Amino acid sequence: MPGLPLSQLLQLPSLSRARLLAGDGGRAVTWVHVVDLPEPAPWVRKGQLLLSTGYAWPREVAALRRFAGELAAAEPAGVVLAVPQFFDRFPEAALEVLAEAGVAVLELPWEVPFAQVTEEVLRRLLARQLEVQERVQALHRALMAALLEREDLASFLAYLSRLLGQEVRWAEAPEGGVAVPVPLGRDRVGYLVLEGPLEEAEARALENAALMAGLILAHQRALAEREARLGYAFLDALLEGKREALTPERARAFGLDLKRRYRLGVALLPLSLPLSERAFQERERALGEVRGLLRGMGVGAVLSVNLNQVRFLLPEGLDPEAFARALDRPWPLYFSRAYAPLDLARALEEVERLSAFTAPGVYRYEAHLVPRFLLGDLEARQELLALLKPLRPREREALLAWVRAGFAYQGAAQALGVHLNTLRYRLRRLEERLGVSLDSPEDRFLLELAARVWELEDKKT
Predict the structure, then answer these.
(1) Same domain, 354 and 446
(2) Do 332 and 249 contact (CB within 8 A), yes or no?
């Protein structure tokens, strides 16, 4: 039964003449009980308001303290003694023990009938129970209506916040305020958190809402699983640029973190097309290996298949080479640059440009600019030209002269008609702007190739 603070019950006619001597007057009273036995503790429950005449209470100080200690252990909300009759006033020894335990200690004039007290208290408690039940039912009906009308968790939580008059937010772990776990099968997938105190009806509504949130997520997961069975449509939709597919609930169901960036990875399986029944089984085994490795790394397994390819998302920060070593399969593995989930359509374009490389190995888009250019990739040509765009005209001029002079500083300075130190200064600025080293053979080759392409484009215009 819902309780009421003792301080509220003291406003009832029968208890208005009671005197609170010590203890916690704010304790919740759940029932009222008359007990006049030598050992009342077994008959007392937590939260009860105990009424007694003191007829069976001991009189010796030590016995009174022991008696009060046993009574306090039962955790009643308060003990009311009718005086003066068997005791002129509440015995000090018992009062000290009860008050120390937080039990409210009260004296009630002898002429106030216990029957009147129990009747008024129980009537008020039952009225409170009815109020709570009506409020619980009203909130439950409103939540059920919201569940039927709202398909996503965010709008459901917004409605719940308005209904309770306080913000209810989603959290991955219990933190602050009142946190109610959201079940999904046998697991807890998160918590509904509400800051501040709650009335009992609102607390029950929050518990009901947690179950409904679990239903929403279960529904979303079922949809996600169905999408996976129908061709892993979630990832394919993202790769096709269908942004409406990326709702927070679907992302959560697939284990996709909207705050992270991802590389698109593609494993090219050595399977002939069209796929035979055996090839289909091989692809499923490969899919399981990639899924298991991703889950073993503690990341969401977002995958799809396309002919003889297994596509998956690798969070930025995880090394593609390390992933390939852990997978340990003789497949070509292509990786795009890292993109936000909403921009993954660009990742698919990048991976497709790497398809010319068919030998087993790891192919990262940004690390294969020169090979792509040599294979006639027009996009690679544009990227080489873009490499030099951050340079100022004199820095670009110094690079071109240095390349034409066969990387000879003196010859380049003479060709430009500038002091040798001026040339070195401009080339140092070039290194800083582009983040390269002229002492690195790989960077020097890349810069020479970019300079030659730039020079050819410049001659065209």
Answers:
(1) no
(2) no
